[in-house]
Design goal:
Layout (H helix, E strand, L loop, with lengths): L5 H55 L61 H4 L47
Length: about 170
């Protein structure tokens, strides 16, 4: 004794049950994600607080001596002590006795000298430089720089660099 609309009602009841189950699952997931999110925020806050206090403790604590790359020379404020700047190309690089003995340089041991130094070996610092050919120079030019190749005194920065021709396919 089934009515003709019984199948339709059963299908609608099944669809409603499926939708209600889906909504219940999404609400449960939303609730759990909220708890996980709150826990993650709390963990992040705790970690951030610990790192701030650790940073403050490091700032307050005893400090190690600073290893600089060059000695700091105090500038005097009197106008008589002002000297014209010397170009880096005209200055001679300092010669150190360690340049003659590269096998003694390790770079990991702290130096007890009063002069701090960089980690680049002296033989590289004092090596001769060379000029690149025009096809290898970047397009940027230093304004006011003196071009040694320019014999007639014109501004070489206004002259565009030579652009090499594209390669052609050779058959043969």
């Amino acid at each position: 004794m089934t009515a003709t609309g019984d199948v339709l009602l059963t299908a609608l009841l099944a669809a409603f049950t499926a939708c209600a189950g889906y909504v219940a699952g999404r609400l449960h997931q939303w609730y759990l994600v909220g708890l996980d999110r709150d826990e993650a925020y709390q963990d992040g806050f705790d970690t951030g607080t610990r790192s701030v206090f650790a940073t403050a403790a490091r700032m307050i604590g005893p400090r190690r001596p600073v290893r600089g790359s060059a000695p700091v020379v105090p500038l005097s404020t009197s106008p008589a002590a002002v000297e014209p700047p010397v170009s880096p190309a005209a200055a001679e690089p300092p010669v150190s006795p360690a340049a003659a003995e590269p096998e003694q340089m390790t770079g990991t041991e702290p130096r007890s000298d009063a002069q701090p130094r960089h980690r680049v070996p002296d033989e590289l610092v004092q090596a001769a430089t060379y000029r690149l050919p025009p096809d290898r120079i970047a397009r940027a030019k230093v304004p006011g720089a003196l071009d040694l190749d320019d014999a007639d005194g014109q501004d070489a920065a206004c002259v565009p660099p030579a652009i090499p021709r594209p390669r052609t396919a050779e058959s043969g």
